[in-house]
From TrEMBL:
Keyword Transferase: yes
InterPro entries noted in UniProt: HATPase_C_sf, HATPase_dom, His_kinase_dom, HisK_dim/P_dom, HisK_dim/P_sf, PAC, PAS, PAS-assoc_C
Domain PAS, residue spans: 18-91
PANTHER family membership: OSMOSENSING HISTIDINE PROTEIN KINASE SLN1 (PTHR43047:SF72), TWO-COMPONENT HISTIDINE PROTEIN KINASE (PTHR43047)
Domain Histidine kinase intervals: 296-511
Residue ranges of domain PAC in the record: 94-146
Gene3D superfamilies the record matches: 1.10.287.130, Histidine kinase-like ATPase, C-terminal domain, PAS domain
Enzyme Commission designation: 2.7.13.3
Catalytic activity, reaction form: ATP + protein L-histidine = ADP + protein N-phospho-L-histidine
Protein name per its UniProtKB record: histidine kinase
Keywords for the protein's UniProt record, in alphabetical order: Kinase, Phosphoprotein, Transferase
Amino acid sequence: METSHEAFNGSGGNLEHHLDIYLKALNSANSGIIITDNTQPDNPIIYCNKAFETITGYSHNEIIGHNCRFLQSQDRAQPERNILKECIEEGKECRVEIRNYKKNGKLFWNELYVSPVQNDAGEVTHFIGVQNDITDRKRAEYELREEKASVEKKIQTRTQELIDNQAFLSSIIHTVRESLLVLDAKFVVISANTHFLNTFKVSAEDTVGTLLFELGNHQWDIEALKDLLIKILPTNNPVIDFEVEHDFPHIGKKIMLLNAYRVEFEGQYKDRILIAIEDITDKTEIDRRKDDFLSIASHELKTPLTTIKGLVQLLQRMPPEGASEKYLSTLDKVGNYVDRLNNLITELLDTSKIQSGNIELHNEPFIIDKTIKDTVESLSLATHDYKVELSGITNASILGDELQISQVLNNLISNAIKYSPGEEKVDVHVSRVGDFVKISVTDYGMGISPHDKTKIFDRFFRARDIQKKFPGLGIGLYISHEIIANHKGSLWVESEIGKGSTFSFTLPIMKVDDNGK
C-alpha cells in the first residue's frame, strides 16, 4: 500500500483516508485490477489487487514494476497486443480479449478493460486495467463453434453420401471382375453387373426387377442358395465362401463360391443384399487334374523306388568281399536318401488321397499312451543329438487308425527337431482334457510368425525363411491336420518368433459303445 500512496503522492490526512477506502474497495473486488504509471518508462504496474494475484498466480512483489505484457509470456504475435499499445500511446480507452499465462504456465483468457487517468492539465498520468478470467466462456464458445462446424460438416457429408451412394455402388458393381448382384429384402434383383450377365448368358432386361429364383426360366432356383439367403437378413451375418454346384440349362455345370452380405443405407436404401459370385469351375478342374497328376506320378515313382530300395538293402546285407569302408558308408547314404525320397512320395500319395476323399481309416481300439511311447522311443533311437522327453499319462483308449496317429506324432516331433537347430530337447506331453486326449509337442527353436501361423496347415505352404534353410514340400502339417480332423479332433499351434513352438492335437476318448459293445 505504501507504493500506491507514494505513486499518487497525495497530501493531507483526508486524502489518505479516502485513498485507503478506495484501495480496500479495490481489494474486495472479484475482478483483477491494476494501476500503471504512464509517467515512468515502459508504463510499469504500481498497484494490483488481491483478485489480480489470484487470477495470475503471481504474488504482489512479483507483479509490481512489470509491464502488463509479461502475462503474454512468449505468445507475442497476438494482434490484441498492438491494439493495447496503440490505445496507451494515444491515451484512449480500449477493451480486448487476450491470451495470458499464469505463473505455472497455464493458459487463461483475459477480458481486459483499460482506461486512462488524466491530471488537471489533461495529461495521461496513469492507466487503470480491469481484467476478468473468461477461460470457461472461451472454452464453451470454442466447443460450441466446433460442434456447430462438426454438425454442419456431418450434414454436408451425409447429404453427399446419400447422393453418391447409388452411383458409387453402381460403379463398383459394373467394374469388378466378378459376378455381382444386389437384391432387395424380397430377393428381387435391383442390379446385376456386366460380368454376371456375360457369365450366365442373360440380359439386363430379363434380370433386373426379377425374383432371383425365377431368373432364366428358374435356373437359379437352387435350394442351397435359398437356405443361404433366408438366413442373412434375420441374423445380419455375412455368408463367406459358400460353395454351390449347379447344372445350368444353357451353360452347363458350374461350381461357384458365394459371398453374401446385408447392406443398409439410410434414406433410399434399406435391407439390400449384395451377392458376389466367383466361378471356380475351371479352378476346381485344374486342381483335380493336378491331384490326379500327383497321384499318378507318385504311384509311378513308387514302383521303381521300391525296387531300388530292395537292391540297396540287398547290397547292404551282401557286400562284396573286401568292400572298403567308403563303399559301405556311401551305400548307407544311398539308403538314407532312398528312404527320404520314399517318405516324400508317400506324403504326396497321402495328399492326393485326402484331396480326392479316398484316404482310408482303419479304425481299431488302441491304447494311446503306448502308441505315443513307442513313437517317441523310435525317434529317440534315430536322433541321438536330441533328447525327446515324454511326460503325462492318460490310461485312455482311442478308436482310430493307430498308424495314422503315429504318423502325425512322428511328423510333429521330426519338425520340432528339424526347425530348432542348436537346441537339444523336445518335450512331448500327454493329458486328459474332458472327453479328449491332448498331445503337445514343444520345441525351443526358431518359432513361427503370426502371419505364417494362419497358413501353416495349408497344402504346400512353406514360410520364405524356412524355404531357404530347410528342404521340404510343405505337406506334412497339412496331412497331419486332415488326419486329426478325420478322427474328430483338432490340431493347432502356439508360437512366438525366437521362442519356439507348441503343436497340440486332441483325440476323442473311446466310449464303451464306440466299439459296438
